[in-house]
Amino acid sequence: MKIFIDSADTHEIREAARMGAIDGVTTNPSLVAKTGRKYVDVVKEICELVDGPISAEVLGTSYDDIVREGREWAKMHKNIVVKVPLIVEGLKAVRTLTDEGIKTNVTLCFSPTQAMLAAKAGATYISPFVGRLDDASEDGMLLIEQIVTIYRNYHYKTEVLVASVRHPIHVVQSATLGADVCTIPFKVIEQLAKHPLTDIGLAKFLEDAKKIPR
Ligand code: G3P
After folding, report:
1. Residues 39-56: pLDDT tens digits?
2. Mutation test of ligand 1: which of 30, 110, 125 has the most ligand atoms closer than 8 Å to its C-beta?
3. Number of domains in the chain
4. Which structural domain, as residue segments, surrounds residue 79?
5. What CA–CA distance (Å, rounded) separates 4 from 105?
6. Centre of ligand 1 from the C-alpha of residue 189, in Å
7. What confidence tens digit (pLDDT) does each residue in 97-155 have?
8. Which of 53, 118, 132, 193 is packed most tightly, with the most Cβ within 10 A?
9. Which of 6, 109, 127 to mutate for ligand 1's pocket (most ligand atoms within 8 Å of CB)?
10. Is 214 a member of any domain?
11. Is 163 in the pocket of ligand 1 (CB under 6 A)?
């Protein structure tokens, strides 16, 4: 499973990239707003930090605006993936952008039928939001299971990119279910590396090492 970082904070992205675990980056308007910087400037810098797919979201909601913004994003760097909301206008735009060879990530997916339509439109990635479904008392990971099964049954090429990840169990379940990508906030990436028994074991080794004659 590929691991993307879900962040617009270039310090976090740099740190995560140094761990060698990052295959790509996803951003969204909410994450960029937190930085206080222009979306274009953030994405340009990210493209210099990570050599992999970088999702940059369109802000328009009409077919014309989505296609126009998508083409602009795609022109900026070869690694840019245009993030498009899962609405009817968005699906039409994905068809057009796909036909032009532009990669897309269809976002805000909350149902298997939405995921089927995104695949039919030729999306490169589908982004189901597991955490937000859990927040609404639904089972986010059940949606991943359904989409992975449907895509496998019909050999859809669209990759399942698990988004709205909140904790390491979401990551483990994504990998177990065969998701193609999991996009993970920096805090959760750090949690993936940690285990209390590792810390306890290391402290004991370091303590015992002092007893070894030099
Ligand atoms: O990038 C989209 C997604 O990962 C958002 O996550 O935590 O705002 O639901 P969250």
Report:
1. 999 999 999 999 999 999
2. 30
3. 1
4. 2-209
5. 13
6. 14
7. 999 999 999 999 999 999 999 999 999 999 999 999 999 999 999 999 999 999 999 99
8. 118
9. 6
10. no
11. yes
Q: Give yes or no for residue 130 CB within 6 A of ligand 1.
A: no
Q: Tell me the whole-structure pTM to 2 decimals.
A: 0.96
Residue 40 falls inside a structural domain: yes
DSSP-assigned states of every residue in 149-180: HHHHHTT---EEEEBS--SHHHHHHHHHHT-S
Q: Is residue 184 part of a domain?
A: yes
Residue 31 burial (10 A CB sphere; 0-12, 13-18, 19+): middle
CA distance 128 to 143: 8
Whether residue 83 lies in the annotated active site: yes
Q: In CATH, what number is assigned to the domain containing residue 178?
A: 3.20.20.70
